């Protein structure tokens, strides 16, 4: 890992890795529950290794907060291995900043699903207000030598606010979701302030070359020849009005060794055996997702139905286990999606269930980690078919947990993970129902030697490019000397 011995890491994301909830038996107390989602799964082991501070929202709106919230969080320091500092927001700000601008505007738009975006003008005002609140807390906590690492689309404008408060520390931003092409980005009514917000950072990290190049194309379209580009190390240097921003491609990984260790425990091994016994000799096909329309769950269910219709020999020989973790349930679009998925599962099971064989097992809840690992280990095939995804950690977790090297990964070509894993996974276009159905049939009938060859290569890639490798590359790029201080020497060398 990068040497941060002389610098403190301040990590900032919309949510803290734990959310506070009222204890049911004591209306005045709080209990901390782990936050769901890829950002927290990936970053928690990094912060545990590096120490430092994590700033974010505690999940409680200001109207319900009590004076002891900060103390409850600070008491978790020893258990977590880093300090937790809350940022407050009101219920109205939560609705307009988090549910509104972040998740009804940026989230659909950046996943190329512009028709799902709700461009309500009041959302952006709340977005600016909350970014200002984050900046105020960071400015209070940070000193000039700290490294401030801000995550994801909720906090694009925080760097500008920090600079206007006089903060001079290095500012890194990592975008966990995709960045869209100009045709899509230009539809955003607030495209200029969002672009300017990103350009106020010292380093911008993207998951894939596709996302970095889309960002560059948008910057060039909107700013024309007022920007110039250079390349240095593995970075692109963008100069705008005398200010320089570095752009890097850093595909996020997982704590692969941690997943391997977890999957090898006695508890997981026993549960894996139970899951396998429960399905008899059938093959298990597994889907694991936050319940989100970008994850392509409906299209996947249609593809599974199509497999059973076009490959009748696979009936009673395969079962789809779909785990859907409820997410953003305050947004109507997400509640409607849940109903549509439940309807579709019922329809397919109603149509195809036969003599005790039920084609789809659907679990709509978050599983404890041990059970999640057992599902990964037990599954013969993982079906990871998002319509678009920044990376998709489930694809990597499945490989790391698959200790017997025999699983097959079916992976959407629109997941960022396809750039690293696409050669050895079966890649599919998630919109192509026949194509995904054919891949399911191919995976179920794949010879053992081919399964093992592919999975061995996938596991090696996931282990080599893990989350510590990722954090190291980001932090190194964030702590390089300023490009303008080394550029003259580079010119002389050339
Ligand atoms: C965003 C980007 C990017 C899922 N079910 C359970 C459970 N999970 C955990 C998985 C995994 C995480 O949730 C989901 O991560 P993803 O990467 O698949 O998706 P997002 O939440 O959308 O994450 C994504 C990521 O940020 C990181 O940059 O890859 O593209 O959208 O870690 O394990 N965990 C438990 N029980 C479950 O039932 N315990």
Please outline what is shown here.
The chain is α/β, with parallel strands linked by helices and 494 residues long. It has 20 helices and 17 strands.
Q: So how many helices?
A: 20
Coarse shape: globular
CATH architecture of the largest domain: 3-Layer(aba) Sandwich
Share of helix, binned:
40-55%
The top level CATH class name of the largest domain: Alpha Beta
End-to-end separation: 31 Å
Rg from C-alpha positions? 23 Å
Would you give an account of this structure?
- The protein is globular.
- A nine-stranded mixed sheet has the order 5-4-1-6-7-8-11-10-9, with helices on both faces.
- The protein is built from 20 helices and 17 strands.
- The model has no long low-confidence stretch (mean pLDDT 93).
- It is α/β, with parallel strands linked by helices.
- It has helices spanning 38-50, 69-74, 77-80, 91-110, 121-141, 158-164, 182-185, 191-199, 209-223, 256-263, 266-278, 297-310, 332-352, 369-378, 393-401, 418-421, 433-444, 448-464, 467-479, 483-493, and strands spanning 9-15, 18-23, 26-34, 53-57, 83-87, 147-151, 170-174, 203-206, 227-232, 235-240, 243-249, 283-290, 318-325, 360-363, 381-384, 408-412, 426-428.
- The structure holds GDP-alpha-D-glucose (GDG).
């Amino acid at each position: 890992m990068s040497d941060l011995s002389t610098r403190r890491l301040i990590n900032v994301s919309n949510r803290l890795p734990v959310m506070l909830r009222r204890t049911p038996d004591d209306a005045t107390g709080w209990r901390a529950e782990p936050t769901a989602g890829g950002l927290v799964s990936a970053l928690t082991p990094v912060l545990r290794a590096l120490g430092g501070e994590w700033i974010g929202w505690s999940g409680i709106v200001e109207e319900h907060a009590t004076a002891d919230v900060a103390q409850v969080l600070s008491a978790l320091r020893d258990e977590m291995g880093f300090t937790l500092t809350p940022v407050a927001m009101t219920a109205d700000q939560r609705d307009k900043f988090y549910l509104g601008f972040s998740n009804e505007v940026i989230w659909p738009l950046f996943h190329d699903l512009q028709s799902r975006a709700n461009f309500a003008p009041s959302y952006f005002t709340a977005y600016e207000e909350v970014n200002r609140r984050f900046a105020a807390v960071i400015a209070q906590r940070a000193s000039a030598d700290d490294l401030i690492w801000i995550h994801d689309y909720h906090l694009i404008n925080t760097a500008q606010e920090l600079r206007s408060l006089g903060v001079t520390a290095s500012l890194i931003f990592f975008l966990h979701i995709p960045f869209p092409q100009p045709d899509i980005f230009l539809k955003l009514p607030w495209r200029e302030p969002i672009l300017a917000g990103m350009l106020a950072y010292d380093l911008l990290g993207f998951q894939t070359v596709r996302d970095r190049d889309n960002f560059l194309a948008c910057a060039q379209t909107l700013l024309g020849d007022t920007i110039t580009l250079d390349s240095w190390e593995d970075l692109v240097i963008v100069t705008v009005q005398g200010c320089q921003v570095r752009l890097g491609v850093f595909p996020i990984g997982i704590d692969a060794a941690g997943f391997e260790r977890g999957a090898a425990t006695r508890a997981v091994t026993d549960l894996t055996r139970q899951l396998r016994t429960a399905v008899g000799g059938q093959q298990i096909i597994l889907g694991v997702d936050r319940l989100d329309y970008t994850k392509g769950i409906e299209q996947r269910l249609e593809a599974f139905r199509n497999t059973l219709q076009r490959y009748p020999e696979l009936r009673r020989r395969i079962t789809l286990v779909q785990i859907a973790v409820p997410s953003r349930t305050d947004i109507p679009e997400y509640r409607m999606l849940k109903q549509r998925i439940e309807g579709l599962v019922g329809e397919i099971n109603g149509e195809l269930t036969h003599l005790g064989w039920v084609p789809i097992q659907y679990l709509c809840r978050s599983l404890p980690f041990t059970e999640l690992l057992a599902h990964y280990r037990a599954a013969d095939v993982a079906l990871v078919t998002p319509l678009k995804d920044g990376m998709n950690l489930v694809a990597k977790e499945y490989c790391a947990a698959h200790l017997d090297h025999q699983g097959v990964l079916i992976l959407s070509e629109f997941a960022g993970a396809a750039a690293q894993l696409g050669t050895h996974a079966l890649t599919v276009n998630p919109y192509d129902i026949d194509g995904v159905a054919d891949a399911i049939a191919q995976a179920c009938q794949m010879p053992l030697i081919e399964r093992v060859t592919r999975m061995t290569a996938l596991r090696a890639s996931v282990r080599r490019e893990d989350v510590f490798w990722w954090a190291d590359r980001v932090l190194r790029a964030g702590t390089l000397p300023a490009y303008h201080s080394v550029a003259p020497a580079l010119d002389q060398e050339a």
